[in-house]
Amino acid sequence: MTSADYFEVLGIPSDSSIDDIKKAYRCKARLYHPDINPDPGAKDKFISATEAYEFLIANYNNISGSEEAYLRAAEEWRKYRQDRYSRSLRILPGMMTF
């Protein structure tokens, strides 16, 4: 995804402030949260909005520059998410698996 895609997911322009990003995310989260919205596609939209929010907040200062700066931030974000995901899959010592 490009930074423009993340802004589009939240339904805001690419020159939005951090406060605008937060407001848009809260709106989308309330709209698509799976505990509130029974629509089968709501969960995927909620996950996309959360990913967009996390990326934009974490990299706000990095993505406002050149496309190269965005690509660097996106690559670091991809590595971070992969590392976080792989750590969540590790089994804690003493836990039984079936």
Which key phrases capture this entry?
98 residues, mainly alpha, 5 helices, flat
What does this structure look like?
This protein is mainly α. It is built from 5 helices and no strands. The protein has helices spanning 3-10, 18-32, 42-58, 60-63, 67-89.
Briefly note the structural class of the backbone: mainly alpha
Largest sheet: none
Classify the helix fraction into a percent range: 55-70%
The best one-word shape is: flat
Q: Tell me the total number of β-strands.
A: 0
Output mean pLDDT.
84
Regarding quaternary structure, what we see is: single chain
Query: Strand-residue fraction?
Result: under 5%
Sequence-ordered SSE layout with sheet pairings:
Elements: H1 3-10, H2 18-32, H3 42-58, H4 60-63, H5 67-89
Helix pairs in contact: 1-3, 2-3
What would you say about this model in short?
This protein is an all-alpha fold. It has 5 helices and no strands.
